[in-house]
Amino acid sequence: MPHMWYPNARRKKRNIFLHVGPTNSGKTHNALKQLETASSGMYCGPLRLLAWEVAKRMNKANVPCDLITGQEINEVEGAKHKSVTVEMADVTAECECAVIDEIQMVGCKTRGHSFTRALLGIPSDELHLCGDPAVIPLIMDLLEVTNDVVKVQYYERLSPLIPLEVPLESFSNIQTGDCVVTFSRQEIYKLKKRIEHERKHLCSVIYGSLPPETRTRQTIMFNDESSAFDVLVASDAIGMGLNLNISRIIFSTMKKFDGISTRELTISEVKQIAGRAGRYGSKFPVGEVTCLDAVDLPLLHSSLSSHSPVIERAGLFPTFDVLVLYSRLHSTMNFLDILEEFLDKAKLSPNYFISDCAYMMKVAVVVDELPLRLHDKYLFCTSPVDMDDEIVAHGLRQFATNYAKKGLVRLREIFTPGTVKVPGSHKELKDLESVHKVLDLYVWLSFRMEMAFPDRALATTQKEICNVLIEEFLERLGWQRPRRRTRVITSESTKGLPPSK
Protein backbone atom coordinates (compact mmCIF):
# COMPACT_ATOMS: atom_id res chain seq x y z
CA MET A 1 0.00 0.00 0.00
CA PRO A 2 2.46 2.70 -1.13
CA HIS A 3 -0.16 5.40 -0.75
CA MET A 4 0.16 4.92 3.02
CA TRP A 5 3.80 6.03 2.91
CA TYR A 6 2.52 9.63 2.83
CA PRO A 7 0.42 10.38 5.94
CA ASN A 8 0.30 14.16 5.31
CA ALA A 9 -1.42 13.62 1.96
CA ARG A 10 -3.75 10.96 3.37
CA ARG A 11 -5.04 13.36 6.01
CA LYS A 12 -6.47 15.47 3.18
CA LYS A 13 -9.30 14.89 0.77
CA ARG A 14 -7.50 16.34 -2.24
CA ASN A 15 -9.28 17.72 -5.29
CA ILE A 16 -7.39 16.31 -8.27
CA PHE A 17 -7.78 17.73 -11.76
CA LEU A 18 -6.47 15.59 -14.60
CA HIS A 19 -5.72 17.75 -17.66
CA VAL A 20 -5.23 15.44 -20.64
CA GLY A 21 -4.73 16.06 -24.33
CA PRO A 22 -2.12 16.26 -27.09
CA THR A 23 0.88 18.58 -27.15
CA ASN A 24 0.14 22.28 -27.67
CA SER A 25 -3.39 21.95 -26.30
CA GLY A 26 -3.06 24.42 -23.42
CA LYS A 27 -3.44 21.87 -20.62
CA THR A 28 -0.28 22.91 -18.72
CA HIS A 29 -1.02 26.59 -19.35
CA ASN A 30 -4.45 26.25 -17.70
CA ALA A 31 -3.01 24.33 -14.75
CA LEU A 32 -0.37 27.03 -14.22
CA LYS A 33 -3.09 29.69 -14.25
CA GLN A 34 -4.63 27.93 -11.25
CA LEU A 35 -1.22 27.77 -9.59
CA GLU A 36 -0.71 31.51 -10.06
CA THR A 37 -3.95 32.35 -8.25
CA ALA A 38 -3.27 30.05 -5.27
CA SER A 39 -1.94 31.43 -2.00
CA SER A 40 0.80 28.79 -2.02
CA GLY A 41 1.84 26.11 -4.45
CA MET A 42 4.37 23.98 -6.27
CA TYR A 43 5.11 23.09 -9.90
CA CYS A 44 6.81 19.72 -10.50
CA GLY A 45 8.39 19.28 -13.93
CA PRO A 46 10.35 16.50 -15.64
CA LEU A 47 13.23 18.79 -16.71
CA ARG A 48 15.32 21.48 -15.09
CA LEU A 49 14.61 23.64 -18.15
CA LEU A 50 10.88 23.43 -17.51
CA ALA A 51 11.34 24.24 -13.82
CA TRP A 52 13.36 27.29 -14.86
CA GLU A 53 10.70 28.36 -17.38
CA VAL A 54 7.88 28.10 -14.86
CA ALA A 55 9.81 29.94 -12.12
CA LYS A 56 10.52 32.73 -14.61
CA ARG A 57 6.86 32.85 -15.67
CA MET A 58 5.58 32.98 -12.08
CA ASN A 59 7.97 35.72 -11.01
CA LYS A 60 7.17 37.73 -14.14
CA ALA A 61 3.48 37.47 -13.17
CA ASN A 62 4.38 38.97 -9.76
CA VAL A 63 3.97 35.62 -8.00
CA PRO A 64 7.22 35.19 -6.03
CA CYS A 65 8.49 31.70 -6.79
CA ASP A 66 11.56 29.76 -5.64
CA LEU A 67 13.46 27.53 -8.08
CA ILE A 68 14.61 24.22 -6.61
CA THR A 69 16.32 21.47 -8.59
CA GLY A 70 18.88 18.90 -7.57
CA GLN A 71 21.67 21.27 -8.62
CA GLU A 72 20.42 24.76 -7.72
CA ILE A 73 18.29 26.61 -5.22
CA ASN A 74 17.22 30.14 -6.09
CA GLU A 75 15.11 31.60 -3.31
CA VAL A 76 12.94 34.68 -3.89
CA GLU A 77 11.98 36.93 -1.01
CA GLY A 78 8.44 36.32 0.20
CA ALA A 79 7.92 33.29 -2.06
CA LYS A 80 5.18 30.85 -1.13
CA HIS A 81 5.45 29.05 -4.48
CA LYS A 82 8.13 26.65 -5.71
CA SER A 83 9.08 25.42 -9.15
CA VAL A 84 10.94 22.13 -8.81
CA THR A 85 12.11 19.10 -10.71
CA VAL A 86 9.83 16.22 -9.78
CA GLU A 87 12.54 14.44 -7.79
CA MET A 88 12.66 17.50 -5.49
CA ALA A 89 8.91 17.57 -4.78
CA ASP A 90 8.24 18.29 -1.11
CA VAL A 91 5.82 15.69 0.29
CA THR A 92 5.95 17.06 3.83
CA ALA A 93 4.80 20.69 3.51
CA GLU A 94 1.15 21.48 2.80
CA CYS A 95 0.18 23.93 0.04
CA GLU A 96 -3.00 25.09 -1.62
CA CYS A 97 -2.18 24.01 -5.17
CA ALA A 98 0.35 21.78 -6.95
CA VAL A 99 0.96 20.86 -10.60
CA ILE A 100 2.67 17.71 -11.88
CA ASP A 101 3.62 18.01 -15.55
CA GLU A 102 3.98 15.05 -17.97
CA ILE A 103 2.23 12.75 -15.48
CA GLN A 104 2.32 9.88 -17.99
CA MET A 105 5.96 9.51 -16.93
CA VAL A 106 4.76 7.49 -13.93
CA GLY A 107 5.24 4.65 -16.40
CA CYS A 108 8.90 5.51 -17.13
CA LYS A 109 11.09 2.54 -16.25
CA THR A 110 13.82 4.67 -14.64
CA ARG A 111 12.08 7.82 -13.31
CA GLY A 112 8.50 6.62 -12.84
CA HIS A 113 8.89 6.27 -9.07
CA SER A 114 9.53 10.02 -8.70
CA PHE A 115 6.23 10.84 -10.41
CA THR A 116 4.41 8.20 -8.34
CA ARG A 117 5.86 9.69 -5.15
CA ALA A 118 4.67 13.19 -6.15
CA LEU A 119 1.24 11.88 -7.18
CA LEU A 120 0.61 9.97 -3.96
CA GLY A 121 2.54 12.19 -1.58
CA ILE A 122 2.03 15.91 -2.25
CA PRO A 123 -0.27 17.23 0.52
CA SER A 124 -2.01 19.96 -1.51
CA ASP A 125 -5.67 20.96 -1.46
CA GLU A 126 -5.68 20.93 -5.27
CA LEU A 127 -3.45 18.75 -7.44
CA HIS A 128 -3.35 19.36 -11.19
CA LEU A 129 -1.97 16.54 -13.36
CA CYS A 130 -1.05 17.30 -16.98
CA GLY A 131 -0.34 14.64 -19.57
CA ASP A 132 -1.38 12.08 -22.15
CA PRO A 133 -4.91 10.56 -22.04
CA ALA A 134 -3.25 7.11 -22.02
CA VAL A 135 -2.59 7.54 -18.28
CA ILE A 136 -6.24 8.09 -17.22
CA PRO A 137 -7.18 4.47 -16.27
CA LEU A 138 -4.00 4.02 -14.22
CA ILE A 139 -4.44 7.31 -12.34
CA MET A 140 -8.04 6.38 -11.55
CA ASP A 141 -6.92 3.01 -10.20
CA LEU A 142 -4.07 4.47 -8.10
CA LEU A 143 -6.29 7.15 -6.55
CA GLU A 144 -9.24 4.88 -5.87
CA VAL A 145 -7.84 4.11 -2.41
CA THR A 146 -6.70 7.64 -1.48
CA ASN A 147 -10.11 9.22 -0.82
CA ASP A 148 -9.32 12.00 -3.32
CA VAL A 149 -11.86 13.54 -5.70
CA VAL A 150 -10.75 13.22 -9.33
CA LYS A 151 -12.05 15.24 -12.27
CA VAL A 152 -10.88 14.76 -15.86
CA GLN A 153 -10.68 17.63 -18.32
CA TYR A 154 -10.00 16.85 -21.98
CA TYR A 155 -8.21 19.24 -24.32
CA GLU A 156 -7.95 19.50 -28.08
CA ARG A 157 -4.91 20.82 -29.88
CA LEU A 158 -5.05 24.61 -30.23
CA SER A 159 -3.36 24.67 -33.64
CA PRO A 160 -3.44 22.20 -36.55
CA LEU A 161 -0.74 19.57 -37.04
CA ILE A 162 -0.50 18.48 -40.68
CA PRO A 163 1.29 15.23 -41.64
CA LEU A 164 2.81 15.87 -45.09
CA GLU A 165 2.47 13.38 -47.92
CA VAL A 166 5.95 14.03 -49.33
CA PRO A 167 9.35 13.61 -47.66
CA LEU A 168 12.00 16.32 -47.40
CA GLU A 169 14.41 14.28 -49.59
CA SER A 170 17.11 16.96 -49.77
CA PHE A 171 18.55 19.34 -47.18
CA SER A 172 18.40 22.04 -49.82
CA ASN A 173 14.65 22.04 -49.02
CA ILE A 174 15.20 23.10 -45.40
CA GLN A 175 13.26 26.22 -44.40
CA THR A 176 13.33 28.72 -41.54
CA GLY A 177 11.58 27.23 -38.49
CA ASP A 178 12.40 23.61 -39.37
CA CYS A 179 13.51 21.12 -36.74
CA VAL A 180 15.36 18.01 -37.90
CA VAL A 181 15.15 15.18 -35.35
CA THR A 182 17.71 12.43 -34.93
CA PHE A 183 18.83 10.28 -32.01
CA SER A 184 22.60 10.50 -31.48
CA ARG A 185 25.05 13.31 -30.78
CA GLN A 186 27.23 12.26 -33.71
CA GLU A 187 24.29 12.35 -36.12
CA ILE A 188 23.13 15.72 -34.77
CA TYR A 189 26.45 17.37 -35.61
CA LYS A 190 26.63 15.57 -38.94
CA LEU A 191 23.20 16.93 -39.92
CA LYS A 192 24.04 20.42 -38.63
CA LYS A 193 27.11 20.43 -40.88
CA ARG A 194 25.15 19.20 -43.92
CA ILE A 195 22.41 21.81 -43.49
CA GLU A 196 24.86 24.65 -42.96
CA HIS A 197 26.88 23.51 -45.97
CA GLU A 198 24.06 24.93 -48.10
CA ARG A 199 25.01 28.36 -46.61
CA LYS A 200 21.37 29.36 -46.16
CA HIS A 201 20.75 28.56 -42.49
CA LEU A 202 22.47 28.31 -39.13
CA CYS A 203 21.43 25.54 -36.73
CA SER A 204 20.87 25.50 -32.99
CA VAL A 205 21.24 22.07 -31.40
CA ILE A 206 19.46 20.40 -28.47
CA TYR A 207 20.18 16.94 -27.08
CA GLY A 208 20.08 15.20 -23.73
CA SER A 209 23.75 15.29 -22.68
CA LEU A 210 24.15 18.96 -23.58
CA PRO A 211 24.38 20.92 -20.30
CA PRO A 212 20.96 22.35 -19.35
CA GLU A 213 22.29 25.91 -19.33
CA THR A 214 23.58 25.47 -22.88
CA ARG A 215 20.31 23.89 -23.98
CA THR A 216 18.50 26.93 -22.61
CA ARG A 217 20.63 29.33 -24.62
CA GLN A 218 20.33 27.21 -27.76
CA THR A 219 16.54 27.31 -27.30
CA ILE A 220 16.58 31.09 -26.88
CA MET A 221 18.69 31.57 -30.01
CA PHE A 222 16.33 29.43 -32.10
CA ASN A 223 13.19 31.14 -30.78
CA ASP A 224 14.62 34.64 -31.31
CA GLU A 225 13.41 35.89 -34.70
CA SER A 226 16.34 38.32 -34.90
CA SER A 227 18.87 35.50 -34.43
CA ALA A 228 20.77 34.00 -37.36
CA PHE A 229 20.00 30.55 -35.95
CA ASP A 230 16.72 29.73 -37.67
CA VAL A 231 16.86 25.91 -37.88
CA LEU A 232 17.00 23.39 -35.05
CA VAL A 233 18.71 19.98 -35.06
CA ALA A 234 17.62 18.03 -32.03
CA SER A 235 17.10 14.69 -30.34
CA ASP A 236 13.87 13.56 -28.69
CA ALA A 237 14.85 15.86 -25.79
CA ILE A 238 12.51 18.41 -27.44
CA GLY A 239 9.52 16.16 -26.78
CA MET A 240 9.31 17.02 -23.08
CA GLY A 241 7.30 20.24 -23.07
CA LEU A 242 9.93 22.76 -24.17
CA ASN A 243 8.43 25.90 -25.71
CA LEU A 244 9.92 26.02 -29.20
CA ASN A 245 8.77 28.01 -32.22
CA ILE A 246 8.91 25.14 -34.71
CA SER A 247 7.17 25.27 -38.08
CA ARG A 248 7.96 21.77 -39.30
CA ILE A 249 9.30 18.61 -37.65
CA ILE A 250 11.41 16.42 -39.94
CA PHE A 251 12.31 12.92 -38.76
CA SER A 252 15.71 12.02 -40.22
CA THR A 253 15.00 8.45 -39.08
CA MET A 254 12.15 6.60 -37.39
CA LYS A 255 14.50 4.35 -35.41
CA LYS A 256 16.53 4.90 -32.25
CA PHE A 257 18.96 2.97 -30.08
CA ASP A 258 17.37 2.67 -26.62
CA GLY A 259 20.45 1.42 -24.78
CA ILE A 260 19.74 -2.20 -25.62
CA SER A 261 18.84 -2.39 -29.29
CA THR A 262 17.87 -0.26 -32.27
CA ARG A 263 14.08 -0.18 -32.59
CA GLU A 264 11.31 1.74 -34.30
CA LEU A 265 9.88 4.74 -32.47
CA THR A 266 6.76 4.03 -30.44
CA ILE A 267 3.43 5.71 -31.13
CA SER A 268 3.84 7.84 -28.00
CA GLU A 269 7.34 8.96 -28.99
CA VAL A 270 6.25 9.93 -32.52
CA LYS A 271 3.27 11.91 -31.26
CA GLN A 272 5.22 13.63 -28.51
CA ILE A 273 7.97 14.78 -30.88
CA ALA A 274 5.77 15.60 -33.89
CA GLY A 275 3.43 17.60 -31.67
CA ARG A 276 6.17 20.21 -31.07
CA ALA A 277 5.51 21.62 -34.54
CA GLY A 278 3.16 24.59 -34.60
CA ARG A 279 2.74 26.61 -31.44
CA TYR A 280 -0.37 28.59 -30.63
CA GLY A 281 0.36 32.32 -30.57
CA SER A 282 3.79 31.94 -32.20
CA LYS A 283 5.09 32.84 -35.65
CA PHE A 284 4.19 29.29 -36.73
CA PRO A 285 0.68 28.51 -35.42
CA VAL A 286 0.21 25.69 -37.98
CA GLY A 287 2.57 22.74 -37.59
CA GLU A 288 3.74 20.31 -40.23
CA VAL A 289 5.55 17.01 -39.89
CA THR A 290 7.35 14.78 -42.38
CA CYS A 291 10.36 12.49 -42.78
CA LEU A 292 13.65 12.82 -44.59
CA ASP A 293 13.00 9.60 -46.55
CA ALA A 294 9.76 8.42 -48.16
CA VAL A 295 10.18 4.91 -46.71
CA ASP A 296 9.49 6.29 -43.20
CA LEU A 297 6.24 8.09 -44.03
CA PRO A 298 3.87 5.12 -43.46
CA LEU A 299 5.07 4.67 -39.86
CA LEU A 300 4.78 8.41 -39.22
CA HIS A 301 1.21 8.59 -40.55
CA SER A 302 0.02 5.44 -38.79
CA SER A 303 1.50 6.58 -35.47
CA LEU A 304 -0.14 10.01 -35.66
CA SER A 305 -3.54 8.47 -36.41
CA SER A 306 -3.32 5.93 -33.54
CA HIS A 307 -4.05 6.23 -29.84
CA SER A 308 -1.10 5.90 -27.49
CA PRO A 309 -1.08 2.54 -25.68
CA VAL A 310 -2.67 2.68 -22.23
CA ILE A 311 -0.12 3.00 -19.42
CA GLU A 312 -0.74 0.05 -17.14
CA ARG A 313 1.68 0.42 -14.21
CA ALA A 314 3.44 3.11 -12.20
CA GLY A 315 7.03 3.00 -10.98
CA LEU A 316 7.97 2.51 -7.32
CA PHE A 317 11.26 2.55 -5.45
CA PRO A 318 11.82 1.84 -1.73
CA THR A 319 12.44 4.85 0.49
CA PHE A 320 15.60 5.07 2.58
CA ASP A 321 13.61 4.28 5.73
CA VAL A 322 12.29 1.07 4.18
CA LEU A 323 15.81 -0.02 3.18
CA VAL A 324 17.12 0.76 6.68
CA LEU A 325 14.48 -1.51 8.22
CA TYR A 326 15.37 -4.22 5.75
CA SER A 327 19.11 -3.87 6.51
CA ARG A 328 18.44 -4.27 10.24
CA LEU A 329 16.45 -7.42 9.64
CA HIS A 330 19.30 -8.89 7.63
CA SER A 331 22.21 -7.43 9.63
CA THR A 332 24.15 -6.05 6.68
CA MET A 333 25.50 -2.67 5.62
CA ASN A 334 26.27 -3.85 2.09
CA PHE A 335 23.99 -1.65 0.00
CA LEU A 336 24.13 -3.86 -3.09
CA ASP A 337 23.03 -6.92 -1.09
CA ILE A 338 20.20 -4.97 0.55
CA LEU A 339 18.96 -3.65 -2.77
CA GLU A 340 19.20 -6.95 -4.64
CA GLU A 341 17.49 -8.95 -1.87
CA PHE A 342 14.75 -6.36 -1.39
CA LEU A 343 13.98 -6.18 -5.12
CA ASP A 344 13.96 -9.96 -5.36
CA LYS A 345 11.46 -10.38 -2.50
CA ALA A 346 9.27 -7.29 -2.94
CA LYS A 347 5.61 -8.04 -3.63
CA LEU A 348 3.66 -5.53 -5.70
CA SER A 349 0.07 -4.92 -6.66
CA PRO A 350 -0.69 -5.14 -10.40
CA ASN A 351 -0.64 -1.34 -10.70
CA TYR A 352 3.06 -0.98 -9.83
CA PHE A 353 6.53 -2.03 -10.93
CA ILE A 354 9.94 -1.53 -9.30
CA SER A 355 11.90 1.11 -11.23
CA ASP A 356 15.00 0.00 -13.07
CA CYS A 357 17.91 0.70 -10.74
CA ALA A 358 20.77 -0.89 -12.66
CA TYR A 359 22.69 2.40 -12.51
CA MET A 360 22.33 2.46 -8.71
CA MET A 361 23.76 -1.03 -8.47
CA LYS A 362 26.86 0.07 -10.41
CA VAL A 363 27.40 2.83 -7.85
CA ALA A 364 26.70 0.40 -4.99
CA VAL A 365 29.60 -1.79 -6.15
CA VAL A 366 31.89 1.23 -5.69
CA VAL A 367 30.58 2.56 -2.36
CA ASP A 368 30.32 -0.86 -0.72
CA GLU A 369 34.11 -1.06 -0.84
CA LEU A 370 34.34 2.06 1.34
CA PRO A 371 33.73 2.57 5.09
CA LEU A 372 30.55 4.63 4.66
CA ARG A 373 27.30 4.82 6.58
CA LEU A 374 24.24 3.37 4.89
CA HIS A 375 22.73 6.85 4.44
CA ASP A 376 25.89 8.06 2.68
CA LYS A 377 25.79 5.04 0.39
CA TYR A 378 22.14 5.74 -0.39
CA LEU A 379 22.96 9.35 -1.32
CA PHE A 380 25.78 8.37 -3.66
CA CYS A 381 23.62 5.67 -5.25
CA THR A 382 20.72 8.06 -5.89
CA SER A 383 22.96 10.83 -7.27
CA PRO A 384 22.73 11.85 -10.96
CA VAL A 385 25.75 9.89 -12.14
CA ASP A 386 26.25 8.08 -15.45
CA MET A 387 28.50 5.14 -14.57
CA ASP A 388 28.79 4.24 -18.26
CA ASP A 389 30.69 7.51 -18.77
CA GLU A 390 34.30 6.78 -17.79
CA ILE A 391 35.11 10.35 -16.72
CA VAL A 392 31.94 10.72 -14.65
CA ALA A 393 32.37 7.30 -13.02
CA HIS A 394 35.95 8.21 -12.11
CA GLY A 395 34.76 11.47 -10.57
CA LEU A 396 32.18 9.62 -8.46
CA ARG A 397 34.84 7.20 -7.23
CA GLN A 398 37.13 10.04 -6.21
CA PHE A 399 34.37 11.93 -4.44
CA ALA A 400 33.24 8.86 -2.50
CA THR A 401 36.80 7.77 -1.65
CA ASN A 402 37.88 11.21 -0.42
CA TYR A 403 34.68 11.55 1.60
CA ALA A 404 35.21 8.14 3.21
CA LYS A 405 38.84 8.95 4.08
CA LYS A 406 38.53 12.52 5.34
CA GLY A 407 34.87 13.50 5.45
CA LEU A 408 35.85 16.45 3.26
CA VAL A 409 36.01 16.70 -0.55
CA ARG A 410 37.75 19.74 -2.00
CA LEU A 411 37.20 20.36 -5.69
CA ARG A 412 40.83 21.34 -6.25
CA GLU A 413 41.83 17.80 -5.42
CA ILE A 414 40.47 16.95 -8.86
CA PHE A 415 40.91 20.26 -10.70
CA THR A 416 44.26 22.10 -10.89
CA PRO A 417 45.10 25.51 -12.34
CA GLY A 418 45.40 25.46 -16.12
CA THR A 419 43.60 26.44 -19.27
CA VAL A 420 40.60 24.63 -20.72
CA LYS A 421 40.30 25.33 -24.42
CA VAL A 422 37.36 25.25 -26.78
CA PRO A 423 37.01 21.61 -27.91
CA GLY A 424 38.80 20.92 -31.17
CA SER A 425 36.93 17.73 -32.00
CA HIS A 426 33.73 15.86 -31.17
CA LYS A 427 35.72 13.60 -28.83
CA GLU A 428 36.98 16.62 -26.91
CA LEU A 429 33.42 17.99 -26.83
CA LYS A 430 32.16 14.73 -25.32
CA ASP A 431 34.93 14.86 -22.70
CA LEU A 432 34.05 18.46 -21.81
CA GLU A 433 30.39 17.49 -21.43
CA SER A 434 31.54 14.72 -19.09
CA VAL A 435 33.61 17.18 -17.03
CA HIS A 436 30.46 19.33 -16.75
CA LYS A 437 28.60 16.28 -15.40
CA VAL A 438 31.30 15.74 -12.76
CA LEU A 439 30.97 19.36 -11.65
CA ASP A 440 27.18 18.97 -11.66
CA LEU A 441 27.56 15.91 -9.42
CA TYR A 442 29.72 17.89 -6.99
CA VAL A 443 27.05 20.61 -6.77
CA TRP A 444 24.31 17.99 -6.26
CA LEU A 445 26.28 16.41 -3.41
CA SER A 446 27.05 19.83 -1.89
CA PHE A 447 23.34 20.48 -1.38
CA ARG A 448 23.00 17.23 0.56
CA MET A 449 26.36 17.17 2.40
CA GLU A 450 27.24 20.85 2.57
CA MET A 451 30.04 20.60 5.14
CA ALA A 452 31.73 17.76 3.28
CA PHE A 453 31.48 19.39 -0.16
CA PRO A 454 32.21 23.08 0.57
CA ASP A 455 33.30 24.26 -2.90
CA ARG A 456 29.87 24.65 -4.50
CA ALA A 457 30.61 28.20 -5.69
CA LEU A 458 33.80 27.10 -7.43
CA ALA A 459 32.06 24.11 -9.03
CA THR A 460 29.23 26.35 -10.25
CA THR A 461 31.73 28.78 -11.80
CA GLN A 462 33.54 25.91 -13.51
CA LYS A 463 30.22 24.61 -14.88
CA GLU A 464 29.51 28.00 -16.42
CA ILE A 465 32.96 28.05 -18.01
CA CYS A 466 32.26 24.62 -19.53
CA ASN A 467 28.96 25.96 -20.88
CA VAL A 468 30.70 28.91 -22.54
CA LEU A 469 33.38 26.70 -24.09
CA ILE A 470 30.79 24.27 -25.43
CA GLU A 471 28.88 27.15 -26.98
CA GLU A 472 32.11 28.44 -28.56
CA PHE A 473 32.54 25.00 -30.13
CA LEU A 474 28.97 25.05 -31.44
CA GLU A 475 29.56 28.53 -32.83
CA ARG A 476 32.71 27.46 -34.67
CA LEU A 477 30.79 24.69 -36.40
CA GLY A 478 28.70 27.29 -38.26
CA TRP A 479 29.64 28.67 -41.67
CA GLN A 480 29.49 32.20 -40.25
CA ARG A 481 29.90 33.62 -36.79
CA PRO A 482 27.04 35.82 -35.57
CA ARG A 483 28.09 39.16 -34.18
CA ARG A 484 28.89 38.87 -30.53
CA ARG A 485 31.61 40.05 -28.25
CA THR A 486 34.72 37.89 -28.05
CA ARG A 487 35.34 36.14 -24.75
CA VAL A 488 38.64 34.83 -23.50
CA ILE A 489 38.08 32.42 -20.64
CA THR A 490 40.72 31.13 -18.28
CA SER A 491 39.63 28.03 -16.46
CA GLU A 492 41.04 25.03 -14.67
CA SER A 493 41.93 21.82 -16.39
CA THR A 494 41.24 18.42 -14.96
CA LYS A 495 43.57 16.31 -12.90
CA GLY A 496 43.02 12.72 -11.95
CA LEU A 497 40.43 12.13 -14.67
CA PRO A 498 41.12 9.20 -17.00
CA PRO A 499 43.04 10.07 -20.19
CA SER A 500 41.28 10.17 -23.54
CA LYS A 501 41.57 6.96 -25.50
TrEMBL record:
One annotated GO molecular function: hydrolase activity
Enzyme Commission identifier(s): 3.6.4.13
UniProt keyword annotation of Ubl conjugation present: no
Catalytic reaction list: ATP + H2O = ADP + phosphate + H(+)
Cited InterPro entries: DEXQc_SUV3, Helicase_C-like, P-loop_NTPase, RNA-DNA_Helicase, SUV3_C, Suv3_C_1, Suv3_DEXQc
UniProt keyword list: ATP-binding, Helicase, Hydrolase, Mitochondrion, Mitochondrion nucleoid, Nucleotide-binding, Nucleus, Transit peptide
GO biological process, one term: mitochondrial RNA 3'-end processing
Residue ranges of every copy of the Helicase C-terminal domain listed in the record: 150-324
GO cellular component terms attached to this protein's record: mitochondrial degradosome; mitochondrial nucleoid; nucleus
Pfam families: DEXQc_Suv3, Helicase_C, SUV3_C, Suv3_C_1
Cofactor(s), names only, from the UniProt record: Mn(2+); Mg(2+)
Cellular localization per UniProt: Mitochondrion matrix, Mitochondrion nucleoid; Nucleus
Complexes and interactors: Homodimer; in free form. Component of the mitochondrial degradosome (mtEXO) complex which is a heteropentamer containing 2 copies of SUPV3L1 and 3 copies of PNPT1.
Entry protein name: RNA helicase
Organism: Zostera marina (Eelgrass)
